[in-house]
Amino acid sequence: MDKATHNGQPLIQVSDFEGPLDLLLHLIKTNEMDIYDIRITTITSQYLTYLHQMQTLRLDIAGEYFVMAANLMAIKAKLLLPKPQTVAPVDEDVADDPREELVNQLLEYQRYKQAAQELKQRAAARQRHFTRPAMAVPDTVALTVAPGIQPADLQSALQRLIHRAMVAKPVTQSIHQEHFTIKHQMQTVLTRLKRAAGPVDFDGLLAKRPVMEEIVTTFLAVLELARQRQVRLQQAGRLAPLQVNFLKMEGSYTPDVTSSTD
């Protein structure tokens, strides 16, 4: 609630505002003005009144408030000056409005202020939620991988594929929506492995120019298939490509694709 001076005039502390634009928006809202048609005389008068009140209270006022005050008085002076007479008729809408730059600054500041308020509300809503920490993989769950392959090797193989996709990404490209799910990619991987006569390199399970979503989703699908013991992961050497082998040929195939989550 705004305070009042001894003569009943409203007193708004400048420290309550984040800057001169914030104070101007408050004045425009209080006077119920159209931001595109600011009554610059009224706004300038009230703005200077607030600054004088702050000086009376001997409170420090940032220099940017005085700069805005000077700009307001300059705009007011331009509006009071007589317009030059011209032979050809001048459209008032086309003529330069001294308030235009100020209006643009206010509109941009208003957009940022609304965005900041929305982010603040989202942050407050997020604080009411608690995120469960990541669970450790149970000891009973084991991936079907060849001896010698460590999780770091799988991570390294994924990083190489992502780097290759980033390098091959064209500078300009058409944006179109693509949706990959783990369940669908599991079915795609099994289909391609059934057609192959032996192990298939991981990058052979992808399109010629895979997008990032396809690489990550296919990688997760392969890990899920390995967990279900439908495929086996192997690597000939430390820097060799990661190979995926279909276990049906070894009599270990169990169709469990439908149990996977998307």
UniProtKB/TrEMBL annotation:
GO terms for biological process: cell division; chromosome segregation; DNA replication. Residues 99-129 form a coiled coil. The gene is scpA. This is Segregation and condensation protein A. Participates in chromosomal partition during cell division. May act via the formation of a condensin-like complex containing Smc and ScpB that pull DNA away from mid-cell into both cell halves. Component of a cohesin-like complex composed of ScpA, ScpB and the Smc homodimer, in which ScpA and ScpB bind to the head domain of Smc. The presence of the three proteins is required for the association of the complex with DNA. Keywords: Cell cycle, Cell division, Chromosome partition, Coiled coil, Cytoplasm. Belongs to the ScpA family. Its main location: cytoplasm. GO terms for cellular component: cytoplasm. The keyword Transmembrane helix does not apply. Gene3D superfamilies: 6.10.250.2410. The keyword Coiled coil applies. InterPro entries: ScpA. It is found in: Cytoplasm. It holds the Pfam family SMC_ScpA. It comes from Levilactobacillus suantsaiihabitans.
